[in-house]
Design goal:
mainly beta; 5-stranded antiparallel beta sheet; 37 strands; globular
Length: about 600
């Protein structure tokens, strides 16, 4: 290995440098198609921990290109007439905080790049309650590839009842933005609540979208339920943009209601995988009736049949059929028929040990141990608005923990799924998470997480060439305790390995998996890694300031002669180390990219 010291000043409007460690990746031959990023150091000083450190160069196909982190917009920036990240209610008025100030979200998350006609647009999520999406027209310098914002505006979500906690996302093969809605409300508790004190604090801010102050003493639980319908939220959200920048929004109720981290559509334009974030969650596959149309189809939930407990574990996957549905029927049930939890399930008492009375099925999901009985004729509705509970009821696995990003190696038909932590329901006989459940997953605890690889094959019964047959641990974090005198003390995961993997993206034909982190004590400063799947080597290519989360790493091999790796730095100083914040302006999030990169088009792309 060679020792390299370099400094890269990024376009951030602040002093940002990249101090490099010895390269962690195995060097490739000069003409290798596998990109070699110069590695950045693990931040060790207070100065470094306040900066965005990014790889200053990349070598690919024998050519070295100077790169870095480039900011397109920060939360609160104005572009044209729009303020990036300003939350608006259903009437288009700014949403207010408790102190009366306008709410500008610092929870920037997934941002897509969409070349439409001769223009380039960016659609960006804000992971708030209410959530928001902004469409930004970009200027691309034809020579350098540098991106800058021309104008930005809020996307109207009133036609779908507002947007809830949009998290990660993807770009569909037909060039639409596929968003998400994470951590949906527990409809059982909201229906049963007798006062606002019994409404979960996490859910209350959504009422602001409808002009209701959830914190006012005069606000009643009836007021809250009048505006907040739990079954409106928790679905993949598709946004199409035309050349004029006009947008169309569709919520895909047919794909099921879960804590959607993201949806990833396969090259057949019909098969889609949906990850479900949280504790005791499922893993889902949707087969659309028609290519490029996610409005109707059949939903499946995975059952983990364990074959190994080593290195993150391994399993053969069985797919449990949850039935067919379409958007229109499910939306009608929500908006017109007023479906509630009690109209779907009867609730049993159980004996507290995981056993239910006759006629009731014992399950354990995010909402804990429950004894449920499905009411007659409610199969289809249950499968789409209580998807996780229904999947458990049907025998699928709901024991995954912090199931995050999904990406695809299309050449080798390998899917990658990040599990931010291997604990709780993924352990063997966890006292709480396995109570009343089947205990399908029985793995050693790894609080630093694992990225899994899934082999995709033809399945004639399901009718897809992209059905995951197994799931095997590939890249593991390593719990570590550093001594008090170490510069890395306080980090609980090995600093040269991943910690709590979250969003992932793949560079087709380049054997490179990009892994972003969402970690707190695992790594004090979250990182993005390039993992060479051929050599099993890791290169740290970006780190973020105190309290940030890396979101939205997404690879674009060729947009008008330039490549990009999108990268968003969410809520600086907002998740940990909040006492380190001096200037409030430093807490604004960054939406940007690593690059511009050389074109890395997949030679096998048709």
């Amino acid at each position: 290995m060679r020792k390299i010291i370099a400094r890269n000043v990024a376009n951030l409007g602040l002093c940002t440098a990249a101090l490099l460690l010895p390269t962690l990746a195995v060097a490739e031959t000069e003409a290798s198609p596998v990109p070699e990023f110069k590695a950045v150091s693990f931040p060790a000083t207070d100065e470094q921990k306040r900066q965005i450190l990014a790889s200053p160069e990349i070598t690919v196909d024998g050519k070295t290109t100077q790169i870095g982190f480039n900011t397109i917009l920060r939360s609160g920036d104005k572009a044209g007439d729009g303020v990036f990240g300003l939350l608006l209610d259903e009437t288009g008025k700014p949403v207010q905080n408790k102190d009366g100030s306008e709410h500008i979200s610092v929870d920037n998350d997934f941002s897509s790049l969409l070349p439409i006609g001769d223009k380039l647009f960016m659609v960006s999520h804000f992971e708030s309650r209410p959530g928001a999406m902004y469409v930004t027209e970009l200027n691309q310098d034809k020579t350098t590839g540098k991106l800058s914002a021309v104008s930005t505006r809020n996307i109207d979500m009133s036609g779908v009842g507002g947007l809830w906690v949009p998290c990660a996302g993807s770009v569909s093969p037909w060039m639409t933005h596929l968003g998400s809605e994470e951590y949906p409300n527990n409809a059982r508790l909201t229906e049963a609540a007798t006062s606002m004190d019994e409404i979960e604090d996490y859910d209350k801010p959504m009422a602001r979208y409808f002009g209701l102050d959830p914190y006012a003493e005069s606000t009643t639980v009836a007021d809250f339920r009048r505006v907040f319908k739990p079954y409106r939220y928790g679905y993949p959200v598709e946004v199409s943009v035309d050349v004029a920048g006009n947008t169309e929004v569709v919520k895909h109720y047919a794909m099921g209601r879960t804590a959607v981290e993201l949806t990833k559509v396969m090259p057949d334009e019909k098969t889609a995988y949906i990850s479900d974030d949280g504790t005791n969650v499922g893993f889902f596959m949707f087969i659309a009736d028609t290519p490029k149309d996610l409005s109707s189809g059949r939903l499946y939930a995975a059952k983990w049949n364990q074959t190994s407990a080593e290195n993150g574990g391994a399993a053969d996957l069985e797919w449990i059929d949850l039935g067919h549905a379409d958007n229109a029927a499910i939306r009608k049930a929500i908006e017109e028929d007023g479906v509630t939890f009690s109209s779907i399930f009867s609730i049993g008492q159980g004996d507290g040990t995981g056993v239910c009375e006759a006629g009731f099925t014992s399950i354990n999901t995010t909402d804990g141990y429950e004894c449920l009985q499905l009411k007659p004729g409610m199969e289809t509705i249950a499968s789409r608005v209580e998807t996780r509970r229904y999947a458990a009821y049907k025998g699928a696995t709901t024991e995954f923990r912090k199931e995050e990003g999904i990406t695809l190696d299309p050449d080798n038909k390998i899917l990658y799924v990040a599990m931010s932590e291997v604990n709780k329901g993924m352990l063997d006989h966890d006292k709480k998470a396995d109570l009343g459940g089947p205990n399908h997953i029985r793995l050693p605890q790894n609080d630093c997480g694992t990225v899994y690889k899934l082999e995709l094959v033809h399945n004639s019964a399901i009718g897809s060439d992209y059905v995951a047959k197994n799931m095997v641990g590939l890249v593991n974090g390593e719990p570590t305790s550093y001594p008090q005198e170490s510069e890395f003390t306080g980090n609980t995961c090995h600093v040269d390995k991943i910690a709590n993997p979250d969003n992932v993206t793949f560079m087709p034909s380049r054997a490179t998996l990009i892994i972003g982190e969402d970690t707190g004590s695992g790594h004090q400063n979250d990182a993005i890694w390039a993992y060479n799947v051929s050599t099993d080597s890791l290169t740290r290519i970006q780190t973020t300031p105190y309290g940030s989360e890396t979101t939205s790493p997404y690879f674009y091999p060729n947009i008008n002669g330039h490549g990009y790796l999108m990268s968003v730095v969410q809520h600086p100083y907002g998740e940990s180390d909040m006492d380190k914040l001096g200037d409030p302006a430093d807490a604004r999030a960054y939406t940007g990219y690593i690059g511009p990169l050389p074109v890395m088009e997949n030679p096998n792309k048709k």
